[in-house]
Amino acid sequence: MSPKKERKAPRGVGPSEGAPTAAAGTSADLSGVSYEALVAEMIRRCGDDPDRQGMSKTPERVKKAMAFLTQGYQMTAADAVGDALFDEAHHNMVMVKDIELYSMCEHHLLPFFGKAHVAYIPDGRIMGLSKAARLVEVFSRRFQVQERLTEQIAQAIWDTIQPQGVAVVIEAYHLCMMMRGVQKQNSKTITSAMRGAFLEDQRTRDEFLRLTTSEHRPLS
Question: CATH number, domain at 100?
C-alpha cells in the first residue's frame, strides 16, 4: 500500500513556514507576536511577499493606519465635549448637518463612509457646535456597525447635555457591499436614532427629517 499523500492547504489560505498555528478547537496565543509580524503573515497567506521592495514597509504602515482608524477606543464622549457646555435659554432645534464620517465594518474590516446629521433641542444648556462632529469621531473611529454607531452618538448627546430631544441620521456607503459580496455600487444605508421630543412629537421629527433631506445652496 502506497503511503498517504499529505493534503496541502490551498494557496493563500494555509500558514506559512514558521507561522504560529493553533490545534483544533484551541486558539494560539499571539500576544507575544508583533503587529508587524502578524501583518506580514497575513500578506503571505494572501499570496504575496511582504519582503519585496514595494511591501517591505507595509506592515509598519498598516500598524500606524489601524491605530489612527481605531483611535476612538482611546476616546470618550466626556473627553470630546470637555467643558464646552454653556447655559443658554434656547429651546429650538440645533442641527449640525453633513458631518463627514469614516468607520470600519466590524464584519469584514472594510470601510464604510458617509454623512451624519445630528440635532438636539436644548433644555437650558447647549454644547459647542464642533462637539457634535467630535462625538461622531469618537464612535466612528472604531470597528462598528452603522446601526450601533447611530445609537451611540444619540445616547452620548442625550447623556451629556440632557436635552429635550436628540435625533441622529447617518447615511453611508459600505465597501463590504460594493467591492465584494453582492457588489451593489449605488446602495446607500440610512439609519436613525431618536430620543425625547423627536420621538414624542411628530412635527418636530418631521422638521428634522425634512432638513436632513433638503438640498441647500452653498453659503457663498
Answer: 3.30.1130.10
Q: Mind listing the pLDDT tens digit for each residue in 22-41?
A: 545 557 889 899 999 999 99
Same domain membership, residue 52 and residue 112:
no
Name, in order, each residue with C-beta under 8 angstroms of 14's C-beta and a sequence gap of 6 or more: 8, 45
pLDDT, the chain, mean: 89
Q: Are residues 58 and 149 in the same domain?
A: no
The pLDDT of residue 216: 67
DSSP annotation of 173 reads E
- For residue 38, give the H/E element and its range: helix 35-46
**Residue 12: band (very low, low, confident or very high) from pLDDT cuts 50, 70, 90:** very low
Phi/psi of residue 118, each to 5°?
-125, 130
- Decide: 121 and 154 in contact? Cβ < 8 Å: no
- Residues annotated as catalytic are 105-108, 146, 174, 176
35 Cα distance to chain centroid: 21
pLDDT in tens, 43-56: 999 999 999 999 99
- Alpha helices by DSSP H, 47-145: 58-69, 77-81, 130-140
